């Protein structure tokens, strides 16, 4: 096989299925034969042209599971046939100031699969070796793919809090991130409050492991959390600053609002809510490759899995539209290799 298929995009939503020549991986890279790729909301950066030089084609997709197909010079940690994953961050350089301090997430010379570099809406992807994640054989490719971005995002957000076991932790939003966040919070030993709009989501929240459900369309979520004793931490996943604004008042003293949902509007905060009690608002961005391996191991040990809709590789543009519609339950995954058909 001398070529492979890929869906590249230019401009705004201009998908094109192309044949590309198979090449040897560059120094420090591996070539991966893709099994599955999740369709994440962050794919808008490529598909909607929200990147430098959108007139240049790029292959979207960063929730990638595959098998090592070839190894470039200088790579000693991977071998042919290894089952690997790749997330939002494509591997640290190990040379910049942030890398030298061990802060790999903030590496200043890090490719972003599906945005700055070609991603997983393709049969082949080329990846920096430092960005690869070992994927347990027990996890199916379509289960593991969303965990590599959505999963590690909420997992690391929860691990970054100072919440002790048994503390009240809230997860705002029950979408692609939130439905995983509730599961992680439950398995980490917290008392979990799920916050979403609509009474009909209560049953889903409880089935995922929530102890309490707060309908933010019917009540002030901050006041409801305060009535429960206050949350030690709240992970905010909804892409709405306005919906996050009332949450700070529901934190206990020294509590943290951890923001992972990227919103177009700002969060409005009463300064007294921050000053009195020393509450904080922090952001959390995904995780490094080793964080992701921790995440997959924890997910496997605790039977945490995303709810997915699987679509064929040939339906990639339709899969993106399905994700953007907000109707998917809850993650869309492309079956690139046809393993589920």
What does this structure look like?
- The chain is an alpha/beta fold.
- 24% of the residues lie in helices and 27% in strands.
- The chain is built from 10 helices and 15 strands.
- Strand 8, helix 4 and strand 9 form a beta-alpha-beta unit.
- Helix 3 crosses helix 4 and helix 3 crosses helix 9.
Helix and strand topology:
Layout: E1 3-10, E2 14-21, E3 29-39, H1 44-47, E4 63-71, E5 83-86, H2 97-100, E6 124-128, E7 133-134, H3 141-159, E8 168-172, H4 178-187, E9 191-196, H5 202-208, E10 212-215, H6 221-227, E11 231-236, H7 241-244, E12 251-259, H8 271-275, E13 280-283, H9 289-301, E14 308-312, H10 316-325, E15 331-335
Parallel strand pairs: 8-9, 8-11, 9-10, 11-12, 12-13, 14-15
Antiparallel strand pairs: 1-2, 3-4, 3-6, 3-15, 4-5, 5-7
Largest sheet: 7 strands, mixed
Strand fraction:
25-35%
The residue fraction in helices comes out at 10-25%
Form type: globular
Number of separate helices? 10
Structural class: alpha/beta
Which series of helices and strands comes N to C? Answer: EEEHEEHEEHEHEHEHEHEHEHEHE
Mean pLDDT: 97
Cα-atom radius of gyration: 20 Å
What distance lies between the first and last C-alpha atoms, to the nearest angstrom? 22 Å
Spans of at least 5 consecutive residues whose pLDDT stays below 50 are none
Number of strands: 15
Question: In a nutshell, what does this entry contain?
Answer:
This protein has helices spanning 44-47, 97-100, 141-159, 178-187, 202-208, 221-227, 241-244, 271-275, 289-301, 316-325, and strands spanning 3-10, 14-21, 29-39, 63-71, 83-86, 124-128, 133-134, 168-172, 191-196, 212-215, 231-236, 251-259, 280-283, 308-312, 331-335. It has 341 residues and is an alpha/beta fold.
């Amino acid at each position: 096989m001398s070529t492979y298929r890929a869906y590249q995009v230019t401009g705004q939503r201009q998908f094109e299925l192309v044949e590309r020549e198979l090449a040897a991986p560059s120094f420090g890279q591996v070539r991966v034969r893709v099994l599955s790729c999740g369709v994440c909301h962050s794919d808008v950066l490529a598909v909607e042209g929200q990147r430098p030089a959108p007139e240049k084609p790029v292959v979207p997709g960063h929730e990638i599971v595959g098998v090592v197909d070839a190894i470039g010079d200088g790579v000693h940690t991977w071998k042919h046939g290894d089952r690997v994953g790749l997330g939002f961050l494509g591997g640290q350089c190990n040379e910049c100031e942030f890398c030298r301090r061990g802060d790999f997430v903030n590496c200043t010379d890090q490719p972003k699969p599906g945005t700055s570099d070609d991603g997983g809406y393709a049969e082949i992807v080329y990846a920096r070796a430092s960005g690869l994640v070992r994927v347990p054989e027990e996890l199916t490719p379509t289960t593991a793919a969303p965990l590599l971005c959505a999963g590690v995002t909420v997992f690391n957000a929860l691990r970054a809090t100072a919440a002790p076991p048994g503390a009240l932790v809230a997860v705002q939003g029950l979408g692609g991130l939130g439905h995983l966040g509730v599961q992680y919070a439950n398995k980490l030993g917290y008392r979990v409050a799920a916050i979403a709009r609509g009474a009909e989501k209560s049953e889903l929240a409880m089935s995922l492991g929530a102890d309490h459900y707060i309908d933010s369309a019917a009540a002030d979520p901050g006041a409801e959390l305060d009535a429960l004793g206050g949350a030690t931490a709240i992970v905010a996943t909804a892409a709405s600053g306005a919906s996050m604004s009332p949450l700070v008042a529901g934190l206990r003293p020294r509590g943290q609002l951890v923001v992972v949902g990227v919103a177009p509007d700002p969060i409005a905060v009463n300064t007294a809510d921050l000053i009195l009690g020393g509450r904080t608002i922090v952001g959390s961005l995904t995780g490094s490759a080793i964080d992701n391996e921790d995440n997959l191991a924890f997910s496997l040990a605790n039977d945490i899995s995303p709810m997915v809709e699987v679509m064929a590789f040939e339906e990639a543009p339709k899969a993106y539209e399905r994700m953007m519609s907000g109707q998917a339950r809850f993650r869309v995954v492309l079956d690139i290799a046809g393993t589920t058909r």
